[in-house]
C-alpha cells in the first residue's frame, strides 16, 4: 500500500461503521424483479474504489454533528448516481478495464450496462424523496443534470487538439467535481448548517473533486497500470485532450506539438511512448500537479472554516494527501 493509500484508509476508518450502514442500504435498494439489475450493479459496486463521494457526505455530517439516518440513505444515493455514470461512461468510452478487472459492458454487454445505469439513476431519485426536503432534491437534480452536460461537453471535445485549460477545467468541474460538491453540500444541508458553512462545504467538494481528476489525468502518463487498474494511455486513445497534453503542447517544440495534436485528432496511441516522453521532458506533469495543488489548497482553506474535530481533520487530510496519490 502506498503512503497516500494508507493515509486515505486512515481517514475512511473514521466512518467505517457508517459506511457499513450505507452498504446495507445499497444492498437493500438494489432489490429488483429483474435479477440482472442486481447482478450488474453488484459487479461494479463490489469492484472496490475508495467510495469518496459517500465518504465525503459522511465526513461532513460528522464534522457538523449530524447523526440522523438520512446520511446513510443519501450516501447510498450519491454512490448510485456515481455508479450509473461509470456504467454509461464505459459504454461511451468503449473501455474494457476498470479497477483492475473487466468493465461491466465488457462482461455483460452495452445494452445491460446502459439499462442498469438508467435503473440506478431512477432508483436514486426514488430514494431522494425519503429525505423529505425539497433542497435535497434540488441539489441532486441539479448535480445530475450538470454531470450529464459535462459528459456531452467531453464528447464534443473528443479529438479536439485546440482545447485549452479553461475548457478542460469546465468539463471536469461538471463531469467529476459536481458530484463531490453535491455530496459535501448535502452533508451541510442535513446538518442544518448556515449558508456560509454550506458554501464552504460545497467549495471543498468541488475543489477536492477537481484535484482528484487532475491527478487522475497525470497518472495516465505517470502511473502504474497494475496499481491503477486501468490501461495507461486510455485518454489518448479516446482522443481526450487532458491537462498534461495541453501543457505539453504549450511548452513543446512545433514538432512535439504536431505529434501530440495528430495523436489527439486520430485517437492513436501508437506513438504513446514518444508522447509520454514529451509530456515528461516539457515539464507538463509538473504544470499539471501545480494545478492540482492549487485546487487541493482551495479545499484545505474551505475545510478550515468547519468546526475542529476528527472528521474535519479527516477532510483536511484527504485534501493534503491527494498530491501523493499514485493510484
From TrEMBL:
Record-given protein name: Octaprenyl diphosphate synthase
One function term, GO molecular function aspect: metal ion binding
Catalytic reaction annotation: 5 isopentenyl diphosphate + (2E,6E)-farnesyl diphosphate = all-trans-octaprenyl diphosphate + 5 diphosphate
Enzyme class: transferase
UniProt-listed GO biological process terms: isoprenoid biosynthetic process
EC numbers for this chain: 2.5.1.90
Entry keyword Cytoplasm: no
Amino acid at each position: 500500500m502506498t503512503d497516500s493509500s494508507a493515509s486515505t484508509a486512515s481517514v475512511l476508518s473514521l466512518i467505517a461503521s457508517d459506511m457499513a450502514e450505507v452498504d446495507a442500504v445499497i444492498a437493500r435498494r438494489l432489490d429488483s424483479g429483474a435479477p440482472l439489475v442486481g447482478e450488474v450493479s453488484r459487479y461494479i459496486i463490489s469492484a472496490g474504489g475508495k467510495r469518496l463521494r459517500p465518504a465525503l457526505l459522511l465526513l461532513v455530517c460528522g464534522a457538523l454533528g449530524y447523526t440522523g439516518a438520512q446520511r446513510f440513505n443519501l450516501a447510498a444515493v450519491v454512490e448510485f448516481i456515481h455508479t450509473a455514470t461509470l456504467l454509461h461512461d464505459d459504454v461511451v468510452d468503449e473501455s474494457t478495464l476498470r479497477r483492475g478487472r473487466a468493465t461491466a459492458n465488457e462482461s455483460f454487454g452495452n445494452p445491460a450496462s446502459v439499462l442498469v445505469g438508467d435503473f440506478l439513476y431512477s432508483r436514486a431519485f426514488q430514494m431522494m424523496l425519503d429525505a423529505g426536503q425539497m433542497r435535497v432534491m434540488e441539489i441532486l437534480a441539479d448535480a445530475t443534470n450538470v454531470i450529464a452536460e459535462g459528459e456531452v461537453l467531453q464528447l464534443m471535445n473528443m479529438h479536439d487538439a485546440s482545447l485549452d485549460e479553461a475548457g478542460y477545467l469546465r468539463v471536469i468541474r461538471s463531469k467529476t467535481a459536481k458530484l463531490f460538491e453535491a455530496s459535501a453540500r448535502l452533508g451541510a444541508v442535513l446538518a442544518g448548517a448556515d449558508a456560509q458553512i454550506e458554501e464552504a462545504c460545497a467549495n471543498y467538494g468541488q475543489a477536492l473533486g477537481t484535484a482528484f481528476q487532475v491527478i487522475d489525468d497525470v497518472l495516465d502518463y505517470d502511473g502504474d497500470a497494475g496499481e491503477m487498474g486501468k490501461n495507461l494511455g486510455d485518454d489518448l486513445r479516446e482522443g481526450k485532450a487532458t491537462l498534461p497534453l495541453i501543457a505539453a503542447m504549450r511548452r513543446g517544440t512545433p514538432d512535439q506539438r504536431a505529434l501530440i495534436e495528430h495523436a489527439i485528432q486520430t485517437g492513436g496511441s501508437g506513438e504513446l511512448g514518444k508522447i509520454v516522453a514529451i509530456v515528461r521532458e516539457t515539464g507538463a506533469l509538473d504544470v499539471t500537479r501545480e494545478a492540482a495543488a492549487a485546487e487541493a489548497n482551495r479545499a484545505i482553506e474551505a475545510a478550515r472554516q468547519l468546526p475542529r474535530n476528527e472528521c474535519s481533520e479527516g477532510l483536511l487530510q484527504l485534501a493534503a494527501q491527494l498530491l501523493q496519490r499514485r493510484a
